[in-house]
């Protein structure tokens, strides 16, 4: 058996197949560690991968993340897989899938968009394609070229 | 088709059938717009006219349309004296106007302002221009004008000329004309070309728009020439501006190269891009086009407030 740099977890969620270098952005989108996740979170970056060459992996112990809360990471990690682990076994495995809209995650690249002013609203983007992820600002209809750089 | 209480934010929110229905309704309103008939179908209704950017035609024609239908108008035309100057957010201004009136007409400098307004207002919002974004009632009156003059849009050779990059009206218009199956040619200086996204949208609708910098070539088989103003401030070099402005001047000499029944349109105001000598020719329809704003806006107001009677 190959020696793993990051040990398997007993219970929790493993987010695999994150493009190399994006693990911290994924954590940021998930609101970790701010959102009351007190459990152990381990991050592996630039792990060798047969499919992707290099990839990042995130492991959140003792917490089974709901697809709904994880799906939005598809914005920057469209091929990510979510593995739910119970007693060292993968009991559920699924690919992330972008929701129809992403709210409050991205900042519109258009400086004169109303969503960039002092209005009491959250940014809102309509998803127009899953892979590659493409989104359009609900307000000004501008499409950001580089989604990763637009994360709030 | 349901129009009652609908927001009018972008022409893209409407199907071809809905657009044609608005235009058909507008036709019925022409005698009322001319003041030959009177209606009080919107009696007791109040329109809030919120223009946070200068406007003459759009604001006046909305106010005229509302009053010709028996409704009344309240509003601000000078944002410098209004609460906006005091730092009020647009959403607060909208909430206030929404509680004072039955419909809000909004012009604002920021893209997406009308969509935001629609989220905060219970009554319908009509977008009268949001920054470089949409201006759907202008688009509707342009379509109305072409249909009135040419009886069709499909297969017409339509040339859009001028500032196609920043021009607020030409983006929605190009989309709508593609939807209706027109043959489009975009004529502009290299630096003010039609944005790629707009060209892609037209292609997605099955159109094959052509782009050129040479007006003389495009004018020959044109049925409609839609002229827009080239703003001096877009050119850092005044000489470059002069060169462009003179090369795109529509005058009698240019008209001699065009089809006899070419119609010339312009959203106005114009500066030098159309010579005054053209005004008297049967080709010039831009003042008719400006008038058409009234029946079209009457149709929209009556459809969303009163069921289109």
Report what the structure shows:
The complex is a heterodimer of chains A (152) and B (309). By secondary structure, chain A is mainly beta. Helices cover 8% and strands 34% of the residues of chain A. Chain A contains 2 helices and 8 strands. Chain A is elongated and about 50 Å long. The model of chain A has no long low-confidence stretch (mean pLDDT 89). With 309 residues, chain B is an alpha/beta fold. In chain B, helix 5 links the parallel strand 3 and strand 4. In chain B, helix 1 packs across helix 6, helix 1 crosses helix 12 and helix 4 crosses helix 5. Chains A and B meet through loops of A and helix 5 of B.
Characteristic key phrases:
heterodimer; A: 152 residues; mainly beta; Alpha-Beta Plaits; SH3 type barrels; 2 domains; 5-stranded antiparallel sheet; 3-stranded antiparallel sheet; 2 helices; B: 309 residues; alpha/beta; Rossmann fold; 5-stranded parallel sheet; 4-stranded parallel sheet; 12 helices; 9 strands; globular
Spell out the blueprint of helices and strands:
The complex is a heterodimer of chains A (152) and B (309).
Chain A: E1 12-19, H1 23-30, E2 41-49, E3 53-61, H2 67-70, E4 81-86, E5 89-95, E6 101-103, E7 124-129, E8 134-137
Antiparallel strand pairs in A: 1-3, 1-4, 2-3, 4-5, 6-7, 7-8
Chain B: H1 16-28, H2 30-33, E1 46-51, H3 57-68, E2 72-76, H4 90-100, E3 103-108, H5 113-120, E4 125-130, H6 136-150, E5 157-161, H7 168-179, E6 183-187, H8 196-204, E7 210-212, H9 215-219, E8 224-227, H10 238-247, H11 252-255, E9 263-265, H12 286-306
Parallel strand pairs in B: 1-2, 1-3, 3-4, 5-6, 5-8, 6-7, 8-9
Helix pairs in contact in B: 1-6, 1-12, 3-12, 4-5, 6-7, 6-12, 7-8
In a few lines, what is going on in this structure?
The complex is a heterodimer of chains A (152) and B (309). Chain A is mainly beta.
Overall average residue pLDDT of chain B: 93
The CATH topology of the largest domain in chain B corresponds to Rossmann fold
State the total count of DSSP E strands of chain A. 8
The spatial strand order of the largest sheet of chain A comes to: 2-3-1-4-5
